[in-house]
Design a protein that fits this description.
By secondary structure, the protein is of the alpha/beta class. It has 21 helices and 8 strands. It has an 8-stranded mixed β-sheet with strand order 3-2-4-1-5-6-7-8, sandwiched between helices. The longest helix has 22 residues.
Length: 465
């Protein structure tokens, strides 16, 4: 997500963060790099111009120049301005005082409205709501059947009809009211482009159902084109916020960084994957932290809480802190991590690990499945007491899991490394990932480590002589 933009901005700000003193030349160079990074990310030109102007104005002010850490102050300013650019404020939806709350989804054909409707219904159900879906898209072939299938998948009722979209929408709202549903989501039709027929239909549905929220669904991958669509809808349909789909595949971020500044409407929700449970509320401050490589602890905590039962988490934590880390514990923690989403994405949310993951290949889901197969091929005693796994047992485990002995050995070593990490965390230390560089230490600690390493090398060289 926004990998290209993130790399460029971190590169532009990296030198500044290390400087103890700033001058006009250093600031100008950084501003040029930021401007190029945003333009290459397909951010609206006027948005880029205004953003760089605000950052420069604050960067040359007394607040920065008199600071003990001027470079870090500039990074802080960029973070704050990115947050404002994407819409600082609450991204939560509005709910009617008297149910049902009506949410109308609008957008062009192919933007992902139908899937977004199902994802939103599931998200609201997890929050304790009783949602209902209405299939008001009578234009696209199979749109109704698609929504019905998704409704079955998430166990949410779907209202259908063959009349005109306005009648179906109104009947769907009344049906939800009679069935005690407190939220109704209308999946309306789209077109390949903005036209009068589309706008007239949306206006008629809006007048009939009086929605509490009108959300415009945009494809994040289309960049500035998505912003142009948002402008056209804003002129004809006064929507309340934006749902950005396919954000997980957007390496540039042009739509996310432009839409609020251009339309004045906030991004409310973002789709971060194809699965029906991968819709999240949008938090500009957290996204700004991710873009600048600062991690996203709050989102990480929320993902963990959603994926792990509290008693299960507490028991596993207790065992880990006591150094009792068996393969049963390994399997439990592994399954918890899998439920939180793609491993690479989860690790990027941890502050300090972004740079360690640089150049690391995308985690292969098939390899993760092999890990589970190897552990399940062990006996209960072997999972509880890994030290009893000798050579013959390793061969048997390899045969049972369809792997080889080398892969079994790698997993045994990985368990040891994880146990080591747990001990480091218990001692209050920042754990390092096996096979990756150690976390960046403060300058003094880094220098001391470098001196020790240099001293060891000299001793080894002298011993060889």
């Amino acid at each position: 997500m926004f990998d290209t933009l993130s790399d460029r901005l971190q590169g532009a700000l990296g030198d500044l963060g290390k400087r103890g003193k700033l001058d006009d030349e250093a600031i100008s160079k950084a501003m040029r790099e930021i401007r190029l990074a945003l333009l290459e990310a397909d951010v609206n030109f006027q948005v880029v111009k205004d953003f760089v102007s605000r950052v420069r104005e604050r960067a040359v002010g007394e607040e920065v120049l008199k600071s003990l850490t001027p470079g870090q102050q500039v990074v802080k300013i960029v973070h704050e301005e990115l947050t404002v650019l994407m819409g600082s404020g609450d991204s939560r939806l509005a709910f009617a005082g008297r149910p049902p709350t009506v949410i109308l989804l609008a957008g062009l054909q192919g933007s992902g409205k139908t899937t977004a409707a199902a994802k939103l219904a599931l998200l609201l159900r997890k929050e304790g709501k009783q949602p209902a879906l209405v299939a008001a898209d009578l234009q696209r072939p199979a749109a109704i059947e698609q929504l019905v299938q998704l409704g079955r998948q998430i166990d949410v009722p779907v209202f259908t009809g063959n009349d005109d979209p306005v009648a179906v929408s109104l009947a769907g709202v009344e049906n939800a009211r009679s069935n005690a549903s407190d939220v109704v989501i209308l999946d309306t039709a789209g077109r390949l482009h903005v036209d009068e027929a589309l706008m007239d239909e949306l206006a008629a549905i809006r007048s009939a159902t009086k929605p509490t929220n009108i959300l415009l669904v945009l494809d994040a991958m289309t960049g500035q084109e998505a912003v142009a669509v948002a402008q056209a809808f804003q002129e004809r349909v006064d929507f309340d916020g934006v749902v950005l789909t396919k954000l997980d595949g957007d390496a540039r971020g042009g739509a996310a960084l432009s839409v609020k500044a251009v339309t004045g409407k906030p991004i409310k929700l973002v789709s971060v994957g194809e699965k029906v449970d991968q819709l999240e509320y949008f938090h500009p401050d957290r996204m700004a932290s991710r873009i600048l490589g600062m991690g996203d602890v709050l989102s990480l905590i929320e993902k963990a809480e959603a994926a792990v039962e509290e008693d299960e988490r507490d028991e596993l934590e207790r065992r880990m802190m006591q150094g009792e880390f068996s393969f049963d514990d390994f399997l439990k923690s592994y399954k918890m991590l899998r439920r939180m989403g793609p491993v690479q994405g989860v690790l990027k949310l941890i502050p300090g690990l972004g740079n360690q993951l640089e150049g690391l290949e995308q985690v292969d889901e098939k390899q993760l499945a092999r890990v589970e197969a190897i552990i399940l091929s062990m006996t209960p005693r072997e999972r509880a007491l890994p030290h009893v796994i000798d050579g013959s047992r390793r061969q048997r485990i390899a045969r049972g899991s369809g792997t080889d002995v080398q892969q079994v050995n790698q997993l045994l070593e990985a368990r040891k490394q994880m146990a080591k990490m747990m001990k480091q965390m218990k001692g209050g230390k920042m754990p390092s990932l096996p096979g990756l560089e150690a976390p960046v230490a403060p300058n003094g600690a880094r220098a001391a480590t470098a001196r020790k390493t240099k001293s060891k090398r000299k001793k080894k060289k002298k011993a060889r002589r």
